[in-house]
């Protein structure tokens, strides 16, 4: 289905939990966030009802997110049901990788073919600092297991001045021998860290650095691809991507809507507006649910204002919405 600006909306990001086993400092405050009560989180059955309704409007790809989706019990059975829904062509999952070694084979069997793995440092000490306690070796083991079962891997690095900017070239080098997609994401001030402006490295600066060390080839994207501008180091097995929500928004090509674990539908991550779907999840309310999702798609704003007016968005934890 197309929105009011002619964008084809075929991609749903579905958060299944607000809980996470890491505390990344750009995602949530040091004190963490108050977890929602179990009864406030949608059941798997309710989530399947939402996706089934969305599929009638042209949603073909679903990315399951959190928090950390692998901390929720029963996730594998849910993914199997999700992959079996009529109209859904692709199931992907975003994870921090801490539990991936335990779940990789089951995820692949359940129908998940693509993984986005948040990985902001290749240095165990820096990784532990960014995540407030994470174990890099567990993540790398999980990546190995996922690769062994044939899953396609994207590594998402949030690039931050003074934190991990010295590793930008190291991440690019990962794509030379491995068929991985390494993506650099501009830091977004969603929780308004102190002096957040000093963290931002523009996508243009990242590209200049890469061009100064590698011969890059620009690539085209397919209809399910997200906002990354894709490149390949000449002769490399994998690819690179740059995502620029701050310096050069990609709203004109945005193809997604979001549903939080509490049942709020959002047409834009950076919008303060959300539509409550929980009252529409009765067995006999499917038509009303479809109509409401249609309004969410049609109400998608032309673009966000985070780069020019950060105060236009209320601070929030990415874990509460789904990164």
Describe the protein in words:
The radius of gyration is 19 Å and the shape is globular. It has one domain: TIM Barrel (Alpha-Beta Barrel), CATH 3.20.20. Helix 2 runs parallel beside helix 3. 28% of the residues lie in helices and 18% in strands. It starts with 10 loop residues before the first strand and ends with a helix. With 323 residues, it is of the alpha/beta class. The longest helix is centred in the middle third of the chain and has 13 residues, at 136-148. It has a 12-stranded mixed sheet, with helices on one face. A hairpin with a 5-residue loop joins strand 8 (229-233) and strand 9. It is built from 9 helices and 12 strands.
Helix coverage percent of residues? Answer: 25-40%
CATH class: Alpha Beta
Q: Which blocks of ≥5 consecutive residues have pLDDT under 50?
A: none
What is the number of helices?
Answer: 9
Strand order of the largest sheet: 7-8-9-6-5-4-3-2-1-10-11-12
CATH topology: TIM Barrel
**Architecture, CATH level 2?**
Alpha-Beta Barrel
Which structural class matches the secondary elements? alpha/beta
Mean pLDDT metric: 90
């Amino acid at each position: 289905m197309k929105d009011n600006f002619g964008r084809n909306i075929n991609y749903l990001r579905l958060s299944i939990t607000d809980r996470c086993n890491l505390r990344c400092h750009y995602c949530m405050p040091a004190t963490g966030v108050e977890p929602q009560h179990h009864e406030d989180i949608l059941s798997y059955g309710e989530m399947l009802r939402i996706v089934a309704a969305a599929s009638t409007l042209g949603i073909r790809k679903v990315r399951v997110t959190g928090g950390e989706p692998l901390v929720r019990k029963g996730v594998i059975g849910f993914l199997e049901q999700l992959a079996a829904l009529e109209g859904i062509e692709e199931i992907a999952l975003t994870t921090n990788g801490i539990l991936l070694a335990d779940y990789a084979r089951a995820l692949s069997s359940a129908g998940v073919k693509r993984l986005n793995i948040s990985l902001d440092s290749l240095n165990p000490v820096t990784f532990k600092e960014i995540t407030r306690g994470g174990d890099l070796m567990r993540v790398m083991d999980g990546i190995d297991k996922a690769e062994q079962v044939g899953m396609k891997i994207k590594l998402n690095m949030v690039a931050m001045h003074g934190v991990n900017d010295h590793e930008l070239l190291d991440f690019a080098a990962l794509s030379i021998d491995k068929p991985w997609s390494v993506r650099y994401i501009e830091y977004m001030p969603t929780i308004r860290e102190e002096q957040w402006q000093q963290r931002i490295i523009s996508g243009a600066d990242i590209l200049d650095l890469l061009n100064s060390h590698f011969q890059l080839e620009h690539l085209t994207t397919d209809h399910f691809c997200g906002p990354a501008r894709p490149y390949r180091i000449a002769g490399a097995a994998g690819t690179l991507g740059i995502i620029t929500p701050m310096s050069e928004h990609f709203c004109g090509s945005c193809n997604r809507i979001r549903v939080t674990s509490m049942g709020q539908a959002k047409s834009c991550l950076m919008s303060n507006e959300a539509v409550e779907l929980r009252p529409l999840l009765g067995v006999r309310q499917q038509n009303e649910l479809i109509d409401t999702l249609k309004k969410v798609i049609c109400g998608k704003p032309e673009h966000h204002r985070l780069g020019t007016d950060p105060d236009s968005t209320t601070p929030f934890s990415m874990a509460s919405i789904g990164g």
